[in-house]
Structures are given as structure tokens and as C-alpha cells.
Design a protein that fits this description.
about 425 residues; 2 domains; 12 helices; alpha/beta; single chain; Nucleotidyltransferase, domain 5; eight-stranded mixed β-sheet; Rossmann fold; seven-stranded mixed β-sheet
Length: about 425
């Protein structure tokens, strides 16, 4: 490997630029599938070569699973493919590179437990998916990493991330801090800059996401979605002004198990594949048994599938008899509901799914659903991308009816490509 990273077959220009950047700090910001992750072992390889046997490289990931499932295999494949000798120390989460002229230590740690890196002395660090952390968590993580290279006069730090708004990556590498210029080089990579993903992958991304998320996760642009309305793709044209003519016997119900109010939205799939929400049910100070009775009284013997809050798969209802969950109440009722779903998603993923469905006009909502329409029009997000439910209207919290709506939408129109990882650090 005397030729360095340029000898790696298939290495992309932005990966090589990131790997070879020799100033103190740099960052690569890119969309899904742009090759950001592979940039990390390439830069590490170049750093080990530059350090001539003295390299100790710290790789910090948001979670342990991301480190073990994504990064570690990339290092192994690269080293095996080019005959680089190494030893894996799983218990220490370290790889020791032992090739002549290319030796050193690679240390994998997690940002969730960044305090555990105190006392380490390394030559260089790379932080993966930096913007997947809360801003309040990013700042101490960065400072702790800087402290780890203080004993090396030419120590370096780098960031690899998908953009998640104007967070600390933007401040460090675009905006600058305290009237100072940006600290280093920012390299941008778009999803379609990687020819190995193929055009179908890019088309699928654009087909699944709304325009705002596509700009962020495909184009790799900084965009503060949290400052926008939560359902920013909501359009007044999605409201049905005429009474919806119900066409079938199969009703689909999204349900949230909040006690006050307990809410559900009711709809069906039209002949054109569009989800039509024709009614909402809002019960004050109620419970799951009461909601089930209301549904049966309203819709009789129709075929009904419920799309509920799946966190209640194991959680006992606050109003249920001992040992019963909300899901179990529905399943064991004298009437029969099919329960759809087996995966608990993050609220950020659900918001992305709903905005994509609204953007592509996969949903229409009756004017007879005023609470749902109000929340879609006016709901806002918290700093970590969740629905702000602390706001109140006439004593009732926001967000529960749009939760019910979201459970239904995300299982009918799922996004198969997810965000890079949950935001950590709360």
C-alpha cells in the first residue's frame, strides 16, 4: 500500500479528498449512499501511513451497534482485500494494524459514553454521524475529542455525517464560532456522486421522500427541518370538501392509547390507491375498552384492521385490568379486530413518512376531521425532531391524533430507507 488510498480500486474523488486532507480539521457531509462511511477506513489508512508506526486513531460512533455493524466490517474488508496485516481485539474494541510500514492502533468507542475516553492519548480522531447527536451532546463530545490529541503537535480531527439541520458540524465548518472563521475543510457528497449505488437507488429515494428531506438526505444540504411546521408538506387541497362516499367493507383505523383524549382516525383505501380518512374519534378521559365499543357500535360487522401505537405491545394500559395491555384488550374483545404491525419506529421516521405521503398526495382527509386537520396545520417540533406536545389548545395536548394518523400512514406507505440513526444524548 505504498501508493496510498489512490491505489484503492473504486475510491471516489470525495473519499480520496477526505482521506488525504492533511490540515488539522476536516469534515465530509453527504447524502444516503454517497460513500461517507467508507471514507473513514480510507482516512484511517492514510493517517497510519503518515504516522509511520506511531498512529493511534480514535473512531467515535453514535452507538456501539453502528460501530460494530457498519464500520468494523468496512475496515476488515479493506484490510483483507489489500493484504494489510492486522489483529482484532474484540474485548477492547480495537484493531491493531501490523503490516510493515503501516502499523498502528485503531480504537472504536461510542459517543453515548464519550466520558470513557477521558485519559486516552491519540494522534487523530474521526467522529461518525456527528449530527445524529443532540446539539447539546455534540459540543462536549467535540471538546473531549480535542483534548485527546492535545499531546500531539500535528494531531487531527475529522467529522463524517449526514446533515441534520444547522447543528455543530455547520457551526464548526461553515459558520464559524465567536467571530472566527470555519475551523477546517468541508467536503460535500451527494447520493448520486457514488456510481455504485445505481440510478434505481436514487430514483427510489426521491420517490419515497418529500422534497425537503430529499434535499437533506440526498443532496447533502444543511436544512433546519425542526424550525419548520412538523407537517410542512400539509396542503389545504388535501381536505375533502364533499362527503366521502365510502366504497367498501374494510376500514382502517389508526389509534393512539392516550387516556385523555383517547383518539382514533378511520379511513379506507380508495380505488386509486389513496388513503381516505373520513372520520375521527376523540374520547375524553376514556380507555381502550370504551374505544373498542364505540368502534363496534359505529361500524358494526365490517372488516376492521387497527394500526395502533406498538409501544403498547408490552406496556400495560393505565386503565386496563392488571396484566392486560391495550393491544391485548383489542385482541381478546368479544368482537375481532386485526392488529397490524410489529415494528416500533422512531417519531422522526414517522414524521418523515407522513410528510412524504402528504407530499406525494397519497392521503385525503375529510373536512369532518377538524382535530386532525388542526394538528396537521399547526403542530411544531422540539429541538430533537419530535412533536411538541406541551402546547395546549382548550386544555388538550397537541399531537395525539396525528400520532394515530401517523401509525396508520407509516404502515401503509413505509419508507424503506431510514435515517442514519436515532438522535442520541437526551
Amino acid at each position: 500500500m505504498n501508493e496510498g488510498v489512490r491505489a484503492i480500486i473504486g475510491a471516489l474523488p470525495h473519499q480520496i479528498e477526505f482521506a488525504e486532507h492533511d490540515e488539522r480539521y476536516c469534515a465530509i457531509v453527504g447524502g444516503f449512499g454517497s460513500g461517507k462511511s467508507f471514507s473513514i477506513p480510507l482516512r484511517t489508512l492514510n493517517l497510519l501511513k503518515r504516522r509511520k508506526g506511531r498512529g493511534k486513531i480514535l473512531i467515535l460512533s453514535p452507538t456501539y451497534r453502528m460501530s460494530q455493524d457498519i464500520l468494523w466490517p468496512l475496515f476488515r474488508d479493506l484490510f483483507d482485500g489489500y493484504g494489510i496485516e492486522y489483529k482484532e481485539h474484540y474485548s477492547k474494541a480495537e484493531i491493531e494494524v501490523t503490516s510493515p510500514g503501516l502499523s498502528g492502533l485503531i480504537m472504536f468507542r461510542t459517543a453515548q459514553n464519550y466520558r470513557l475516553i477521558k485519559g486516552l492519548s491519540v494522534t487523530d480522531f474521526i467522529i461518525d454521524e456527528f449530527d445524529a447527536m443532540l446539539y447539546s451532546h455534540q459540543v462536549p463530545v467535540w471538546r473531549e475529542c480535542i483534548a485527546r490529541i492535545r499531546s500531539v503537535y500535528d494531531g487531527s480531527g475529522a467529522v463524517v455525517t449526514t446533515p441534520e439541520g444547522f447543528k455543530y458540524t455547520y457551526e464548526l465548518f461553515v459558520e464559524g464560532k465567536n467571530d472566527k472563521p470555519p475551523i477546517g475543510k468541508l467536503i460535500k457528497a451527494k447520493s448520486y456522486d457514488n456510481p455504485f449505488t445505481g440510478p434505481q437507488y436514487i430514483e427510489d429515494l426521491y420517490a419515497q421522500y418529500d422534497k425537503k428531506v430529499a434535499e437533506q438526505y440526498i443532496e447533502g444540504e444543511f436544512l433546519d427541518i425542526n424550525s419548520m411546521p412538523a407537517y410542512y408538506e400539509w396542503k389545504e387541497c388535501l381536505v375533502l370538501q364533499e362527503e366521502y362516499p365510502r366504497i367498501g367493507q374494510h376500514y382502517l383505523i389508526g389509534m393512539d392509547f392516550n387516556v385523555d383524549p383517547m383518539v382514533a382516525v378511520v379511513g379506507e383505501i380508495g380505488a386509486n390507491g389513496v388513503l381516505y380518512i373520513f372520520e375521527e374519534i376523540v374520547l375524553g378521559n376514556s380507555n381502550t375498552e370504551e374505544m373498542a365499543k364505540v368502534i363496534v357500535n359505529k361500524y358494526g360487522q365490517r372488516d376492521i384492521t387497527v394500526f395502533p401505537d406498538l409501544t403498547s405491545l408490552s406496556k400495560r394500559s393505565t386503565t386496563a385490568p392488571l396484566g392486560l395491555s391495550d393491544i391485548k384488550i383489542l385482541k381478546e374483545a368479544p368482537y375481532y379486530f386485526r392488529i397490524d404491525g410489529n415494528r416500533i419506529s422512531s417519531q422522526r421516521d414517522r414524521l418523515n413518512t407522513v410528510n412524504a405521503a402528504l407530499s406525494h398526495k397519497k392521503v385525503m382527509i375529510s373536512k369532518n376531521c377538524p382535530n386532525l386537520i388542526r394538528d396537521l396545520r399547526q403542530a411544531t417540533r422540539t429541538d430533537d425532531g419530535r412533536i411538541d406536545k406541551k402546547r395546549e389548545v382548550q386544555g388538550k395536548a397537541w399531537g395525539h391524533i396525528t400520532d394515530a394518523f401517523g401509525y396508520l400512514v407509516e404502515r401503509l406507505f413505509p419508507i424503506t430507507v431510514r435515517t442514519p440513526g436515532r438522535i442520541i444524548g437526551a
